Amino acid sequence: MIDLIAKAVVAGTPLxxxxxxxxxxxxxxxxxxxxxxxFVFGAAAAFTVTVLTGNVYLGLIVSGIVGxxxxxxxxxxxxxxxxxxxxSGLALTIFGYGAASLIGKGMVGQPLPTYISAEGIWWxxxxxxxxxxxxxxxxIFRLKIGAMLxxxxxxxxxxEILGVNVVKVRIIATILGSFMIGIGGGxxxxxxxxxxxxxLGIGRGWISLAIVIVSGWNPILTPIFSYLFGGIEAAIWxxxxxxxxxxxxxxxxxxxxxxxxxxxxxxxxxxxxxxxxPASLGLVYYKEERTV
Amino acid sequence: MRIIFSIKRRPKPIPYSxxxxxxxxxVISLVISSFILFLSGVNPILMFDVLSSSLIDYSTLRxxxxxxxxxxxxxxxxxxxxxxxxxxxxxxxxxxxxxGLALYVIPHDLNPILSITILYIxxxxxxxxxxxLAGILRAKFDVNEVLSTLMLNYIMMQIVNYxxxxxxxxxxxxxxxxxxIFPKNVWIPQIPRTTVHYPTLILSLVLAILMYIVLYRTKxxxxxxxxxxxxxxxxxxxxxxxxxxxxxxxxxGGLAGLAGVGEVAxxxxxxxxxxxVSAGFGYTAIIVAWLGKLNPIIILLSGYFIGxxxxxxxxxxxxxGISYGSINIVxxxxxxxxxxxxxxxxxxxxxxxxx
Lengths: 292, 355
What we know:
The complex is a heterodimer.
Chain A: H1 2-27, H2 35-53, H3 56-80, H4 85-103, H5 122-142, H6 144-154, H7 156-161, H8 166-193, H9 204-214, H10 222-239, H11 248-268, H12 272-275
Helix pairs in contact in A: 1-5, 1-8, 1-9, 1-10, 2-3, 2-4, 2-8, 2-9, 3-4, 3-8, 5-6, 6-8, 9-10, 9-11, 10-11
Chain B: E1 2-9, H1 17-39, H2 44-54, H3 58-79, H4 87-105, H5 112-141, H6 145-165, H7 198-217, H8 219-229, H9 231-236, H10 241-268, H11 274-278, H12 281-291, H13 296-320, H14 327-346, E2 347-354
Antiparallel strand pairs in B: 1-2
């Protein structure tokens, strides 16, 4: 049992990083669908750098930088250039897939010289994860800077009138969030899987996006669902063996099905008041074209 | 000293922007990606050489078929401001129903034309129902369709993989994760010595024209366009927005379902792993739709061009050993520069230096 919890925590930690990053940018009203690209690209970059330099921490830093690059591009295209957020995010995800595939090409089957052995320190991770989510919750819901962030995500026009620089807040939130997504991707290979294959990590970014949804855009709930979905991922490989014999693919549907159900329940029931998405999520902000 | 970055709306979009924007973004993406490929050891001249040979190649048509079908479907949804990104799952829905019917339902001695027609209809309906599901959630509960269609993609993917690893795994496939080969009467015929399944190609051409007419010459098309351009105005002029949402999601999903029929019955002739059936066509079709300015007729061209890019990347993989996935760099940059250029054609960025 302890062993399973440890595995769930280790597998859930990269998802936790990424989902908390996505919470930050979505709270500012920027739907960052580049999360998948940043995650996969970050994973590839971290692995490659670690193999080439032998330094895990350098690998993690580079994955963060990769995240920042994706974040800057998304901010530029969707906030400054007012491109549609969905299109911009998907473009960056497609780009991230390509970049990961390109730089990871020579790395298939390479062993990692060093890695972060997270299994032994899982209780440190869980403690850190919970503390970090509490901190993020405090910043977003109790500090002035968080109020600013939420105001921009709910009603940017009113926020602008009250003196908030909407574009600036959105861009900073996007870059910061994307940085954490990149770190999550780096941790996924360096701290959890320790291997690289073509297509590794694909779908994990979307799982992190799903965690944001089922947590109702609230950082305090993200650790629970990160460890749950991470635990499902870790348990899949054990449960398909006897005596359980559960089909891994049927079990793999669960996270997505839970998310779809949660999304519908949040919107259809009175829970909507607590768990609804930020009102301006995904909407392009036009400052001078306001129609009252 | 401060730098102020501001934006002014141009009174009119820059002249010829309809042509400059797509062509400019193609040029930008090819230049940037040839530079990136150069850094990883591929001669850019080789890339352009392969690309130009791909532009007149049968294999390009083979990739264009699903891209065009999905692209038209997405264009109709995007025109109504409905962000269906679930083509990937809708392709798989079409593929699953095709495989189920071909393997277990349609009698092996049924007339080929009749059985293939059944597959097309079933594939359309199945993809359309998956799209409709997201549409109903949106219309009834205001569930964000981007998130729901994304989740449905992965649910469909897991279902297909469950089928090919589990109940439908072929008895004559030596344990590989794929179904048995379909009986010959459901094979969609190909142009000899190519992999172009021409009935689907003709179908996609006809549907492109049909959808163009629907979108620009009918009342329904007018409602779709108004609902997308100005939902407030649409509501006050008596357009039922929920009806529009359901209709566009139905059509959009159905067209992607047709692409799924073509992939499994026209190319592979068996159900294989989900990642290989849909192969990213659902996501790439978003680029096709956008490059085609959401116009079904122009999408024929953009679908052909992106098909050539895919064909190019398969050839580059064989010639120079870079991985197939690298194509995504080109298409990703293409889409990002497309929407950036669209912005610049309508707005004028002003950078002021103030002392």
